[in-house]
Amino acid sequence: MEELYCQGCGAKIQTEDENKVGYAPKSALQREEIVCKRCFRLKHYNEVQDVDMTADDFLNMLHDIGQRDGLIVKVVDLFDVHGSFIQGLNNFVGHNPIVLVGNKVDLLPKSTNLNKVKNWMRRVAKDFGLQVKEVFLVSAVDGSGMDETAFELERLREGKDIFVVGSTNVGKSTLINYFIQNSTDEKDVITTSYFPGTTLGFIEIPLDDRSDMIDTPGIINHHQMSHYLSKNDLKIVTPKKEIKPKVFQLNQGQTLFIGGLARFDIEQASEKIGYVCYFSNDLSIHRTKQEKADQLYKEHLGELLSPPTNDTLNNWPELVKETFRITSNNKTDVVFSGLGWITVPKGGVTISAYVPKGVRVIIREAII
Ligand code: GDP
C-alpha cells in the first residue's frame, strides 16, 4: 500500500488496528480527502475518540510538545492516580506550564474532602518531579467542576494552545467532548491544516482564531488491572457511580478476596479493626480465614470468586504476594492499581496484598 497520511491530524493511515493512531476503514481509502476515523468523527460528529500509541511514539510526542508553546493539561483518573500518572513528562515540557485535572470525581464518596484530595495530588505530582500550576477536580460525565475549570484554563493559557495529555481510560476524550459541546457552536470543528513535522496524530480543535485545544493519543499503562480483563469483566470492575465504601472488621489471620482479582491478608495485628474497601459497587468481596484462602481460591476461582470469568480466565496470571508493614499512625490506603483500594485505619499492622503478576500495589496516605 502506498503511504497515505490523514488530512486532519497527519498520522500515517493504517487499516489494521482500530485502537491505534491513523486507523481508517478500507472503504475510506477511496475518498478524495482521506482522514483517519478519529478525525472523521470529530469532523462529522463533533466528537473525539481515544487512540493509543507505543512508548516510543509517546516519547516522540512529548518531545514535540516540548518544542511548542502552550498550556499542558494532564488528565489523571482519580480512581487510580498513580496508575494513570504518565511518567517522564517533566523531562519534556520545557517552559510550558502544566495543570493537573483529576477526572471522575463523581466516583468519590460525597463526604470526601476535595481540598485534601487536591493537596494530596500536588504532592503526588511533586513526587513524580512535576511542578503543577493548578489542580482541578472534575467529572466529565456529570459536569461537576467543569465550568470553573474551563474558565481557569482560558485564563491560564494566556491565548496559547492547550495540549491535553493522559494515559488511556482516564476520560480524556469524554472531557474534550464536553468542552467541544459546551464551547463551540460550529458544526465542523476540525481544522484541515495538520501539525507540520509530526505524524503522531495530534488533533486540533479550534479555541479561537489563533489557538487550538490539541488532543493527543493516550499511552497504555500496563501495570493497571484493566489490561488483564475481558470487556465484560471490565464493566463489573469499572465503577460507574459514587462508590459506597464497605467496612470489614478484621482480625489477624483473616483474608478478603476482591472477586477473584485480588486478595488482602491481615498478617499481623494486635486488635480487630475496621478496614474500609473502595471498589466498584458491583464487585463482591468475600471474607475468609487466611489458612483456608489458598484452597478456596483454587476451588472457586471464576465462580464464588469472580470476576475473572470466561475470557479473562483463559489468560489469567497467578496472583503474587507483596507484604507491607504499615507504620504511619494516620490512615493508609493500599491501592490495587485500576481496581480500587482498602484503607487501613491505623499503623502497627502487617498486611499482604495479592494481585495478578504485573499489576502494581501502591501504599499511600489515605485520600479520604
Ligand atoms: P480516554 O481513553 O482517556 O479517552 O477515556 P474515555 O473518555 O474513553 O473514558 C474512559 C472510560 O471512563 C469510559 O468508560 C467513560 O465513560 C469513563 N469516564 C470518563 N469520564 C468519566 C467521569 O467523569 N466519571 C466517570 N464515572 N466515568 C468517566
From TrEMBL:
<dbReference type="GO" id="GO:0005525">
    <property type="term" value="F:GTP binding"/>
</dbReference>
<dbReference type="InterPro" id="IPR048422">
    <property type="entry name" value="NOA1/YqeH-like_C"/>
</dbReference>
<dbReference type="InterPro" id="IPR027417">
    <property type="entry name" value="P-loop_NTPase"/>
</dbReference>
<dbReference type="Pfam" id="PF21516">
    <property type="entry name" value="YqeH-like_C"/>
</dbReference>
<dbReference type="InterPro" id="IPR030378">
    <property type="entry name" value="G_CP_dom"/>
</dbReference>
<protein>
    <recommendedName>
        <fullName>CP-type G domain-containing protein</fullName>
    </recommendedName>
</protein>
<dbReference type="Pfam" id="PF01926">
    <property type="entry name" value="MMR_HSR1"/>
</dbReference>
<feature type="domain" description="CP-type G">
    <location>
        <begin position="59"/>
        <end position="222"/>
    </location>
</feature>
<dbReference type="InterPro" id="IPR019988">
    <property type="entry name" value="GTP-bd_ribosome_bgen_YqeH"/>
</dbReference>
<dbReference type="InterPro" id="IPR050896">
    <property type="entry name" value="Mito_lipid_metab_GTPase"/>
</dbReference>
<dbReference type="InterPro" id="IPR006073">
    <property type="entry name" value="GTP-bd"/>
</dbReference>
